[in-house]
Amino acid sequence: MSEEKKPVEPASNTAKPASEAAKPTKEAAKPTKEAAKPTKEAAKPAKKSWSNPALRAMGIPKISLPSRNWMIFWSVLATIGGGIYYDRHQQKKIREKYTEQVKVLGEEVYTSNRIPRKVTVFIAPPPDAFLEESLKHFRRYVKPLLNAAAIDFDVYTEGRQGEIRSQIADRIREIRRKALEDHKKKEEDARAEAYSKSWTKFFKEDVPNVFKRAKEEEPEVLVDRHDLYSPTNVLGLYKIFEPLQPIRDDETDVETVGGIICIGRGAYKEYVSGVQEGLLGPLDKPEEKIEEVKIESVEGSEESSETKQEVEIDDFGLKDEGDKPKQDPVPQPYIKQKDYQSAVLAPELDMSTVIRDSNNVPVMFEQPLYVYPIPKLVGISNWPRKIYRFFTRRDIAEDVTSETLAIVYGKSRPFEYKDNFLAKEEELNWPKKWVERGRKKESEWVQEVEIDNRIADRLRVFEQTK
Amino acid sequence: MFGLGGAPQVTSQQKIQAAEAELDMVTGMFNSLVEQCHAKCINRSYAEGDVTKQEALCLDRCVSKYFETNVQVGENMQKLGQSGSFMGRQ
């Protein structure tokens, strides 16, 4: 004890002259404070500290607790830092737990002619925010599992409202157009065949040809190189080996094929309206709509300037504005939601069977879907919740990652009415101003999801059954 | 290649040289592709004689990415060559 106290005195002795040296200047400046100072110094207790002659000899000063303020600073820092670290650590553990679980799927021995299952991911930014937010959600909680289970994926993102919808609709229309062409071609072939077998052809062409052939030879016809041979014919390799015919995992089992993942309620809405537009809408862009718009703008010419300004406000945050060239506007839907009921369901396609594309993989709307809400909060009143969520992200990680298992294992069930409200909880947190603006613009994001029964019958939803 | 310097008269000798250069380039590209995708995708412990699903998927993606990049780089080089600003030539 005596040793402990000793070093205090020299320290306080050295401290005093310093304060005394400082005093005269302060006395000159503020004589009123002089009275308060001595009492304060006397009240200050000697700092508790500990030292050792050996340590002192090494040049290590006395060890003591930091002052009150420093203690507050360090403890706050340690709490926040520790909270973040612990949360991260737990997230990592959760991720590892699930990736370990699905890793077995990726370790299957694979022959080189097989192509693994592929899911399609649609990512839309949350309202008034950057795309990065949704991408992060995908990257953190969904992608690790897909990678571990060796599931291929295609990511489609959008920077403006309606891009996903118009793309999906385009793709479905493309499928329909192709089906129409195939159908026409088949009919023509059948007609040609019937003609070649018929008596009319025999008398009209075959009989005269017999006499003609002796006289003239057939003229030389130029054929496109691509019709004669393909690059695989030229490669000597395929003279020895049969070229590989890839087998897709998606072809085999209709129940677990592919999958559609929508990140965000908005992406889901766009997906659904895209599919309906593609299947129920006309194949070509309707012309009347443009006239309608024109008439409207003539009527409300005063309003037009206002509406123009509103249009320029973006739905989402955009990263690099400024010198970017102006993009074409997103095409309007070919069919309105209210017309769905009366529209004919894709007459070109045989809807009694599963529709497949050229790779023999069932097309988009035949694949099961899943929707993730984006946990995004806005506004000052939400800050406490935001902070709480920031420190308990492991809960989100656990929820989202365990939900992803259903996709990985391909467990799905038929679409039900309640699935109209998939990820609906996200809408509660959408900024009100943004929603209002959307209503004015008749944005599809603020409309309710309505799925035509004929299409809803075809859809499937991923769900883990226990 | 890369659209650099269009020769006005091409003899058969030059044609053969060009073909050789082309072949060299293709072979070089193929070799570096195999090397890189092997380094990236194949598990070095070689526990399995065959490729696993994970490795197969990785290889598929690696190769397609490589080709895509190659095409894009080629296109850009061609553009540079045409504009004549390649390697500081103005």
UniProtKB/TrEMBL annotation, chain A:
<dbReference type="GO" id="GO:0005743">
    <property type="term" value="C:mitochondrial inner membrane"/>
</dbReference>
<comment type="similarity">
    <text>Belongs to the TIM54 family.</text>
</comment>
<dbReference type="GO" id="GO:0015031">
    <property type="term" value="P:protein transport"/>
</dbReference>
<dbReference type="Pfam" id="PF11711">
    <property type="entry name" value="Tim54"/>
</dbReference>
<feature type="compositionally biased region" description="Basic and acidic residues">
    <location>
        <begin position="305"/>
        <end position="327"/>
    </location>
</feature>
<keyword id="KW-1133">Transmembrane helix</keyword>
<dbReference type="InterPro" id="IPR050187">
    <property type="entry name" value="Lipid_Phosphate_FormReg"/>
</dbReference>
<keyword id="KW-0813">Transport</keyword>
<feature type="region of interest" description="Disordered">
    <location>
        <begin position="1"/>
        <end position="50"/>
    </location>
</feature>
<keyword id="KW-0472">Membrane</keyword>
<protein>
    <recommendedName>
        <fullName>Mitochondrial import inner membrane translocase subunit TIM54</fullName>
    </recommendedName>
</protein>
<keyword id="KW-0812">Transmembrane</keyword>
<keyword id="KW-0653">Protein transport</keyword>
<feature type="compositionally biased region" description="Basic and acidic residues">
    <location>
        <begin position="23"/>
        <end position="44"/>
    </location>
</feature>
<keyword id="KW-0811">Translocation</keyword>
<dbReference type="InterPro" id="IPR021056">
    <property type="entry name" value="Mt_import_IM_translocase_Tim54"/>
</dbReference>
<feature type="region of interest" description="Disordered">
    <location>
        <begin position="294"/>
        <end position="333"/>
    </location>
</feature>
<keyword id="KW-0496">Mitochondrion</keyword>
<keyword id="KW-0999">Mitochondrion inner membrane</keyword>
TrEMBL record, chain B:
<keyword id="KW-1015">Disulfide bond</keyword>
<keyword id="KW-0472">Membrane</keyword>
<keyword id="KW-0999">Mitochondrion inner membrane</keyword>
<keyword id="KW-0813">Transport</keyword>
<dbReference type="GO" id="GO:0046872">
    <property type="term" value="F:metal ion binding"/>
</dbReference>
<dbReference type="Pfam" id="PF02953">
    <property type="entry name" value="zf-Tim10_DDP"/>
</dbReference>
<keyword id="KW-0653">Protein transport</keyword>
<dbReference type="GO" id="GO:0005743">
    <property type="term" value="C:mitochondrial inner membrane"/>
</dbReference>
<feature type="domain" description="Tim10-like">
    <location>
        <begin position="16"/>
        <end position="79"/>
    </location>
</feature>
<comment type="similarity">
    <text>Belongs to the small Tim family.</text>
</comment>
<dbReference type="GO" id="GO:0015031">
    <property type="term" value="P:protein transport"/>
</dbReference>
<keyword id="KW-0143">Chaperone</keyword>
<comment type="subunit">
    <text>Heterohexamer.</text>
</comment>
<dbReference type="InterPro" id="IPR004217">
    <property type="entry name" value="Tim10-like"/>
</dbReference>
<dbReference type="InterPro" id="IPR035427">
    <property type="entry name" value="Tim10-like_dom_sf"/>
</dbReference>
<comment type="function">
    <text>Mitochondrial intermembrane chaperone that participates in the import and insertion of some multi-pass transmembrane proteins into the mitochondrial inner membrane. Also required for the transfer of beta-barrel precursors from the TOM complex to the sorting and assembly machinery (SAM complex) of the outer membrane. Acts as a chaperone-like protein that protects the hydrophobic precursors from aggregation and guide them through the mitochondrial intermembrane space.</text>
</comment>
<keyword id="KW-0811">Translocation</keyword>
<keyword id="KW-0479">Metal-binding</keyword>
<dbReference type="GO" id="GO:0045039">
    <property type="term" value="P:protein insertion into mitochondrial inner membrane"/>
</dbReference>
<protein>
    <recommendedName>
        <fullName>Mitochondrial import inner membrane translocase subunit</fullName>
    </recommendedName>
</protein>
<keyword id="KW-0496">Mitochondrion</keyword>
<keyword id="KW-0862">Zinc</keyword>
